[in-house]
Amino acid sequence: MSHEVIADKSLATQDHLFKLIIIGDTGVGKSCLMKRVMDNEFKAEHQVTIGVEFGSFGLRVDGKVLKLQIWDTAGQESFKSVTRIFYRGAHCVFLTYDVTREETFVNLLEWLKEIKQHASEDVRVYLIGNKSEMEDQREVTFQRALEFAKEYKLHKVFETSAKTGYNVEEVFAMVAKELYMQSKREAEAAQSANHTAPQDSGKQGGVTLGETSGTKGGKKGKKGGCC
Ligand SMILES: Nc1nc2c(ncn2[C@@H]2O[C@H](COP(=O)(O)OP(=O)(O)O)[C@@H](O)[C@H]2O)c(=O)[nH]1
Ligand SMILES: [Mg+2]
């Protein structure tokens, strides 16, 4: 499915809005990923994020405007109580690590606990290994990330480089499209359930438009992007 990135950052109107939260240890490149996708820029110096910063990324797909609302969180332990609030209502999580620092990969287990405790049960978790252009300093192989994702049932795995831009726009665009397709499927399922229900037994149809319906892995799907 082709797409066109919408340059207008104000993006006052959109057909679908999806919330994405970026988490992971400090210094892995969360803020740089957001800066790259929003402004196509990279900053070499590390400015510690205080609490949470907010951005957005817009896309036109299928004649519809999709907007990703991006919440870039601080990685430090001291900010966790603040950032936890932002897991609520997130459609997806970018769980990030630095491919050149193994400790940031090991710490993913702690971040998974945060997701389990504070995000909704059916949130999509994408594993993102950043700084992929630093091949000579790599400490975590892609294979290891794939195995981790399989073991913990994460949705997908990618490597990116906020520095070169490798895979950044592609990943954000793909996620927006996946969320859009999911919300479309859910709306269609809800609609057909509404149409067929009265013929069944005269009982109330169990699914209301915009409510959950079964999706991948037998889990309940979440509310589609709001309009
Ligand atoms: N080589 C390289 N450095 C990066 C990349 N992404 C971020 N950095 C650097 O890593 C440091 C931390 O980045 P930042 O986005 O502030 O990390 P955050 O704490 O996770 O938000 C900064 O010095 C960035 O310049 C990348 O893809 N490649
Ligand atoms: Mg940051």
Automatic annotation (TrEMBL):
The keyword Glycoprotein does not apply. InterPro entries: P-loop_NTPase, Rab_GTPases_membrane_traffic, Small_GTP-bd, Small_GTPase. Its main location: membrane. It is found in: Endomembrane system. Residues 191-202 have a biased composition (Polar residues). Gene3D superfamilies: P-loop containing nucleotide triphosphate hydrolases. Keywords: Membrane, Nucleotide-binding. This is Uncharacterized protein. It comes from Halteria grandinella.
